[in-house]
Amino acid sequence: MTDKITPNAIRKNNRKQIYDFIYSAGKVSQNDIASILRLSRPTVATNISELEEDGLIFRDGQQDSDQIGRKATVYSVTPDYRIAVGVELTGRHAKIIAVDLYGHKIKRVVNDIRYVNNDSYYRKVCDMILEFIGSLEMSEEQILGIGIAMQGLVSPDGNSIIYGEIMKCTGLSIDVFRERLPYKCTFIHDPEGAALSELWVSPELISAIYLSLSEHLGGALILDRNVVRGKSGHSATFEHIQFDPHGTKCYCGKTGCFETVLSMHALIGEENEEKFFSMARKADTPESEKWGSYLNILGSLIGAVHLVNDVDFILGGHLAPYFTEEDLRVLYDVVRKGCPFEEPDDFIHISKMPSHNINVGAALPFIKEFLDSADALTGSRK
User: Fold this and answer.
1) pLDDT at residue 2 above 70?
2) Helix (H) or strand (E) holding 205
3) Which of 25, 75, 208, 209 is least crowded, fewest Cβ atoms below 10 Å from its Cβ?
């Protein structure tokens, strides 16, 4: 039996359509909304009035026009009508960011605190988060939620760390934060946060493999604009594919995983990356030899995975800004050597968002949920 389309459902749909159009357009007049969405002018006027009254949009000046006479008022979405908070916990820092409905940074702080899996640590971090939110001078209602990114695999429901060998936090429950914070909280695997940021700034991106080349190697699988965690939460864990059975021991306990040769730590150790790459660009230096070996191994990984999943690859993380066009050509050459098919130079890309990507990505699911929900826009008018 087909559900009836009620007048309330039509009103809700019109309101969502109009809000989405203003959100995408940036600034737009009532006449343009009515014309492009093919809605009646009274319908548009009523919804604009209600959206403005509820604080979801605001009058943002007048439309630029060469026409003589009174210029039309234009409207924009109120960016901080709702915001979300992203927290990235590492071994040495607690990074906290607030983003608005466009994913733009409102404020970011980095707190020096060494990670310890105990109650005292979580209490201190929650106090930092509350102090940060308090500094924003926003109402509790404006906070959509807090995403907490960690170096560990996350359960499909986001409620627990199912594998956290790097930080020794396997089994950690999100309840250690929910008990202290009056907001929705969820865990997110740090490469997933980076991949979500990439999706946010790349509307053309549909499916891809995201490789996070940072202190540790990580990855994320993007299919149909969604990051896939998988049945058990360990999709795209390329770092634990064995590269050399007789190689260095990985933190997972096995030997020769790609983590042991492709992490930033494996490449440069404690050396400054700027100094490393300044030497790597010179001929016949130990750094140039190490970088050449790194590119060969990375190309081997990309080539093998590309045979399994023929999608684009995105290189992100701390190392991403250091890749040159010549480096990409080397990667394509390595891929072709191990591939029986023609491989064009069009599927390996550098991240568009290498800065704060994990931090921002941890917050974005709450923003996306708000923007996707028609109910979120109706408030007291449901």
Assistant:
1) no
2) none
3) 25
- Provide the β-strand partners of residue 59: 75
Paired sense of beta strands 312-316 and 226-227, if any: unpaired
- Annotate 204-217 with b (16+ C-beta within 10 A) or e (fewer): ebeebbbbbbbbbb
Closest CA to 374 of 7, 6, 9: 9
CA dist 218 and 211 (Å) reads: 6
Number of compact structural domains in the chain: 3
DSSP string, 50-92: HHHHTTSEEEEEE---SSSSPPPEEEEE-TTSSEEEEEEE-SS
Q: What is the mean pLDDT of residues 89-117?
A: 97
For residue 98, what is the domain's CATH number? 3.30.420.40
Last residue of a domain, one of 38, 58, 78: 78
Q: Is residue 377 part of a domain?
A: no
Which is it for strands 348-350 and 312-316: parallel, antiparallel or unpaired?
A: parallel
Q: What are phi and psi of 255, to 5 degrees?
A: -115, 145
pLDDT in tens, 21-47: 999 999 999 999 999 999 999 999 999
Rounded to whole angstroms, how far apart are CA atoms 143 and 231? 30
Question: Is 380 part of any domain?
Answer: no
Q: Is the pLDDT of residue 171 over 80?
A: yes
